[in-house]
Amino acid sequence: MPSTDTTPLLLQPAADSPAATWSGDGRVRAVVETVLPVVDGGRFAVKCIAGEAFTVTAHCFTDGHDALRVVLSWRAEGAAQATEVAMEALGNDEWQARFVPPTPGRYRYTVTAWVDAFLSWRRELARRVDPRDIRLAARVGALEIAAAAQRATGKDRAALTAWAQALEAGAQTDTDSDGPAAAAQIAALQELALDEGRAALMARYADRRHACRYPVELPLVADRERARYSTWYELFPRSAGPAPGAHGTLRDVQARLPAIAAMGFDVLYLPPIHPIGRVQRKGKNNALVAAPGDVGSPWAIGAAEGGHKAILPELGTAQDFRALVDAARSAGMELALDIAFQCAPDHPYVQEHPDWFRWRPDGTVQYAENPPKKYQDIYPFHFECDDWEGLWTELKSIFEHWIGEGVRIFRVDNPHTKAFPFWEWVITEIQRSHPDVIFLAEAFTRPKVMHGLAKRGFTQSYTYYTWRNTKEELAEYFTELAHGPGRDYFRPNVWPNTPDILHEHLQGGEPAVFMSRLVLAATLSASYGIYGPAYELMEHLPREPGSEEYLDSEKYQIRHWDLDRPGNLASFIAHVNRIRRDNPALHRNEGLRFLPLDNPALIAYAKRSDDGRNTVVTVVNLDPHHTQSGWVNLAAAWVNGPGAEGDPWQMHDLLSQQRFVWQGDWHFVQLDPHRMPAHVFAVRRRVRREQDFDHFE
User: Does residue 372 have a cis bond before it (omega within 30 degrees)?
Assistant: First the structure.
């Protein structure tokens, strides 16, 4: 007896049917295999600069010989509508497109590809020569165009419909002749079918029913330009006083702004400016017991006067701080503030929120340690406490407080000793409301930890530069920073010294070392900083042999600096920073390449701007005692381009203002460290020849 069930038999796929084992639509033939750049498969955001073109590459292909169309789509995070950009085929199944994030903020991007029947038809039609094939192909195209017309509206629908009808009519006309009239008819039909303007209209209504979309909308953070290029100067406000022994103030710092700006710095970074704890206060040179009058460490935050949202009364008032922020901005600088999430024993948090700290069986709080170093004056937060949400919220409010006071750059102390999920959350939350805020991670720790912090949102990161001194070490490390996998999210900020680090390389006090390390920092990295006035005054005495701590460190006492001390490097630093400012090649890291040079005591490298119009070549003598010379390879073809290898070019040393004409591939260099330990050359290409004189620009 026949079944009366009218349900289609294939409504539920048979166990052995393709639909039962293939979860997608088998008619989707395009493949989007890879989208770059990407960080950990899209788990973390790639970083770029707002207002600059961001390049996306995709690996896309299909079976057979049909034409593929690929588009990049991007949108601001939270926006419903995405913008599409057609991707260009580069060859080898690679596609590329660019878009410009207009403002700082968070974005998403992905790639879609599909087999485009119209493009495939158009490409094949252009190659056909047989009149019958062309007429038949025209009718096939007419069907594709008519289908697109149904997807269009208004004038576009009418134009596509008319085009389809014209192709169909032209294909039906047959003179049954091989004469000139027939050839002209076929040529006209082919011209109509391949019309570029109509093809562009057709592209707007492509059949994307079987498109393949990359399954992840990849995250992107667009920062402002200072995230990519910045020049930092650190000073302790309490040491800015005009007379020995006087406690400096924020107003004293304001008085120093013109001199700091004249040296070419655009970020003035202050260590913590909060009240300093009195309990367990450290004395001079990190003595365990403070003497009367000792001022303690600014990183031991909190006392009866307040905590992380208060200002040490000796420094001034909130009004003084706001005036300093405004004055720095007027001088072309920004103020960066140190954020150290830790407390002195007498910080109000210890009494108000004892559960935010780790208590020991004897009733005391576990102070901070980094064996063999001990920080008895500092209590770390306990990020596994039961009230972790309250702790997170309060720490976020510290950033918000100082943002309200005008700060947009934060240097974060030891972020690797705080919970990683907290940083990912707080940076995301802050930047959603304030996308112009920059975070610098002060984390001298293991590479994967440093990179983990950068992935979780830190805008810039301290580096190992201080401990990279040989030619091999420098070339390997900065090649990794500029071209390694971290280039899409890890932005280096290099420092030859910090209040914590006086490298043994500087402890000899040779001016050539201080000058060469500054030139290396300023030209290898788009962002760098110095701890001053210690650097320009070439402070070099360690606390004891084998130590990287400064003798009489400002971390524990007030210092009075003689800024006019003979031999100081202020004018040299200003000159180097002017070179940085005037040469766009030095504003980026990705254009870096190291040059072959036959003397290990000399290092040479080049940087070129994105538009190719600015190239800077730096040569540094790493030996502070002896003149060194060698032959550097700067290939003529790389400088002048194909076909112009024989042309000379000019090397303008921006440090000494000397000019040299180079030609060919190998060039002699010589540097006396007692005169100048480095060349910073601007490459000037020849533009014309007139009256037997070369002209360069």
Answer: yes
Rounded Cα distance, 570 and 535, in Å: 9
How many helices (H) and strands (E) are present in the chain, helices listed first? Answer: 16, 30
Select which of 217, 223, 394, 413 is catalytic. Answer: 413
**How many residues are present in the chain?**
697
Reduced to 3 states (helix: H, G, I; strand: E, B; else coil), residue 654 is coil
Q: What is the SS3 assignment for 474-516?
A: HHHHHHHHHHCHHHHCCCECECCCECCECCHHHCCCCHHHHHH
Are the CB atoms for 614 and 623 separated by under 8 Å? no
Give the global pTM. 0.92
Name the phi and psi angles at 644, rounded to 5: -125, 25
Q: Looking at residue 87, what DSSP letter applies?
A: P
Residue 217 is among the residues annotated as catalytic for this protein:
no
- 119: pLDDT strictly greater than 90: no
CA 621 to the chain's CA centroid: 29
- Nearest CA to 105 out of 217, 220, 226, 225 is that of 220
Helix, strand and coil in the chain, % to nearest 5: 30, 25, 45
The fourth-level CATH superfamily of domain 28-115 is Immunoglobulins (2.60.40.10)
Distance CA(411)–CA(414), nearest Å, equals: 10
Looking only at the bridges linking them, the beta strands covering 409-413 and 334-339 are parallel
Per the listing, tokens 């007139």 go with 690
Catalytic residue among 144, 223, 334, 442, which?
442
Give yes or no for a contact between 148 and 202, defined as CB atoms under 8 angstroms apart: yes
* Cβ proximity of 353 and 283 under 8 Å: no
pLDDT per residue as tens digits for the range 174-199? 655 567 777 888 888 888 888 888 88
Q: In whole angstroms, what is the distance from residue 111 CA to residue 96 CA?
A: 10
pLDDT tens for 45-63 read: 999 999 999 999 999 999 9
Given pLDDT bands bounded at 50, 70 and 90, which one contains residue 692?
A: very low
What is the C-alpha separation between 116 and 496, in angstroms, rounded? Answer: 56
Domain with CATH 3.20.20.80 in the chain: 251-527
b/e burial code for range 443-474 (CB count within 10 A of at least 16 → b): bbbeeeebbbbbbbbbbbbbbebbebbebeeb
Cis status of the peptide bond prior to 542, with omega within 30 of 0: no
Kindly indicate the confidence band of residue 293, based on its pLDDT and cuts at 50, 70 and 90: very high
Q: In this structure, what token pair is assigned to residue 149?
A: 């017309």
Please calculate the CA angle 93-99-104 and round it to the nearest 5 degrees.
140
pLDDT, position 5: 41
Active site residue 476: no
Question: Among residues 99, 111, 112, 108, which one has the least CA distance to residue 81?
Answer: 108
CATH superfamily, domain 251-527, is Glycosidases (3.20.20.80)
Helix (H/G/I), strand (E/B), else coil: 379: strand
Confidence band, pLDDT 50/70/90 cuts, at residue 19: low
Cα–Cα distance between 101 and 521 in angstroms, integer? 29
CATH 2.60.40.10 in the chain, residue ranges: 28-115
More confident residue, 190 or 64: 64
Q: Which letter does DSSP use for residue 81 in this model?
A: P
The whole-angstrom distance between residue 121's C-alpha and the CA centroid of its chain comes to: 43
Three-class secondary structure assignment of 218-257: EEEEEECHHHCCEEEEECCHHHCCCCCCCCCCHHHHHHHH
CA–CA distance, 357 with 351 (Å, rounded to integer): 10
Q: What amino acid occupies position 442?
A: E
